[in-house]
Amino acid sequence: MGSGYFSLKQNHYQLSLRKISSNGSNIWLHHYAQDTTRSYYGNWVYNTIDSGFILPAEVADSIDGNIYVIKVDSAGTIKWDYELLGNKYDQAFDATETIIHDYLVVGWTNSFANGNLNFRDAIVVCIDSLGNYKWKKTFGASNVNETMYRIIASHDGNFIISGVKYSITAQYDNASIWKIDSLGNLKWQKYYYTLSNLNIFYGIQELPNGQIVAVGSDRDTSTHFDQGWIVLLDSLGNILKERRFTLGNDHCIFNDVKQTKDGGFIIVGYVFGGPNGEDGWIVKLDSNLCDVAGCATNTAIHEITQYKDEGSVIVFPNPCIDNLFIKPEFGLNIFSATVYDITGMEIKTTSYRSRELFQINTSELSSGIYLAKLKTESGFKTIKFVKQ
Question: What counts of helices (H) and strands (E) characterise the chain?
């Protein structure tokens, strides 16, 4: 199955859904546009338990766009549609089904909670099996953008969601994973930080052992091109393994991932700068995330610094109480330090230029273990410290 949008006359678009056979021949193709004066933009399609399909989408005109969902039967005939009315732009990307046959739809909103014309909140909308609205939950802060791209049902009855948190002003994109229950209550959330600080998760799958595999992209700090990025996580979202892949000399993106019968993975995505411009991309990996035997695999957040030698720093006192001091060696300048808790959630950023002694005020931090990502004139370095 595949969904998307199809051009109509008068510059409007309609949703499209195509069913093909195993050899690629066409079985049927339907287009959907309840209002031909507006455009409909589809993304993923979800196969429901009753053999029908859910199409999460956006319906838009020149003023705003709303989250829009169509339910069709196994022949592609519309059973119902639902539109979440907002006052700004909102969009749905993916959906899944609960044990009581409600549908959880994820995307982003400018209309609700912290969403506004400048910032987006991630959103989950619950619709019952007849297309009636039940509830919505939003996730995000007032000064950053958050988007949910994919949602899957986990083995424990909860739901795992992949996406991104990003800030245009601070110039970072951080891949995100949320875990929620069937009522949209947050179980945990994690952000993932790399040297580039420009990364994103699109596809996600839970493995039979409870581990999670997520794919997307991470920016190469040397070439400034995106790399296909695959990360293996434990059941709490902690990184176990990760790898990056490129094809050609341009941006490379992973969109979706599935585990294969041999324990490996098949990944689909696209690359810029291919023979025909933007080309499709398929990558097959083994269970160690390798495309060749004996490839190098990076693990855990503190190993990010292995990519570049930033020089050493001296951290004291550690454990600390009210202040943490960082002394750079080799005459390096430290420009900023961003503090994260042990789950990867950003706590605070301290910025000023110091070649002698950099200070972080820790008096307001709760007792526990923290990470500090230091921005220096030669790159980034991540340190660990304890607040008493």
Answer: 0, 30
> Which residues, 6 or more positions from 149, have their beta carbon under 8 angstroms from its beta carbon?
93, 94, 106, 161, 162, 163, 164, 201, 202
Which is nearest to 55 in space by CA: 37, 88, 28, 30?
30
Q: How far apart are CA 296 and CA 219, in angstroms?
A: 19
Torsion of CA 6, 7, 13, 18, to 10 degrees: -10
Length of the chain: 388
* pTM greater than the 0.90 cutoff: no
Q: Tokens for 67?
A: 């989250």
Strand order in the sheet with 239-245: 199-206, 212-219, 226-233, 239-245
| Beta-ladder partners of 382 | 373
Partner residues linked to 383 by β-bridges:
372
For residue range 300-324, what is the model confidence (pLDDT) as tens digits?
Answer: 333 222 223 334 677 888 889 988 9
154 is written with which tokens? 């986990």
Cis peptide before 319 (omega within 30 of 0): yes
pLDDT tens digits, one per residue of 351-367: 877 767 788 999 999 98
- Identify the three-state secondary structure at position 73: coil
Beta bridge partners of 319: none
Q: How far apart are CA 126 and CA 123, in angstroms?
A: 10
